[in-house]
Design a protein that fits this description.
Radius of gyration: 16 Å
Enzyme class: lyase
Distance between the termini: 49 Å
Protein name: glutathione-specific gamma-glutamylcyclotransferase
Strand content: 35-45%
Number of helices: 5
Keywords: Lyase, Transferase
GO cellular component, one term: cytoplasm
Strand order of the largest sheet: 1-3-2-4-5
InterPro entries: ChaC, GGCT-like, GGCT-like_sf
CATH topology: Hypothetical upf0131 protein ytfp
Number of domains: 1
Length: about 180
């Protein structure tokens, strides 16, 4: 690649990018929102008992605050291959190049994985209480679904990124799991 590679993280990439990072900034993506709108049949659930994972769901006028990572020079191709292996395990995510605004005001184009609303793993619009019940009980290849929720909410909080739905879900899932 002959240009800088930026990757936008809004879920587990925030706390587990798993690629060499040259630069990271809190960033805003407009007209998308973070949502537990994808049934997880691999990492946080199974085919018989799907969990839920976060995805970017298109929503005009909304925004998602996350982290933009600039991949260390020389690791662009390796990073793309690793991200595709990790994120495109099913065809529910689509790879998109989207403009994001970094906390320092710069605008960059970043790779982001967004939900395909036509895919059968898409489940946008589930009530929060239903999401909490699913997340509290599901387990997959990377562990309990609730651990994914807790880690994401915790890291967003450390970055000063408010997400009322994730905060509510974290509190509710803790009650359901007690």
């Amino acid at each position: 690649m002959d240009r800088m590679l930026w990757v936008f993280g809004y879920g587990s990439l925030i706390w587990h990018p798993d690629f060499p990072v040259a630069e990271r900034h809190v960033a805003r993506l407009r007209d998308w929102h973070r949502s537990f709108c994808m049934r997880s049949i691999h990492h946080r659930g199974t085919v018989d008992d799907p969990g839920l994972v976060l995805a970017l769901d298109r929503a005009s006028g909304a925004h998602c605050d996350g982290v933009a990572f600039r991949v260390a020079p020389g690791f662009e191709e390796e990073t793309l291959a690793r991200l595709r292996e990790r994120e495109l395990i099913s065809s529910a995510y689509l790879e998109e190049w989207l403009g994001v605004t970094l906390s320092d005001g710069r605008e960059v184009v970043a790779l982001a994985y967004v939900i395909d609303p036509a895919h059968d793993q898409y489940c946008g619009g589930l009530p929060l209480e239903e999401q909490a019940a699913i997340i509290a009980s599901a387990k997959g290849g990377r562990g309990p679904n609730r651990d994914y929720l807790y880690s994401t909410a915790e890291h967003l909080g450390e970055l000063g990124i408010a997400d009322a739905d994730l905060d509510w879900l974290s509190a509710r899932v803790r009650l359901l799991s007690a």
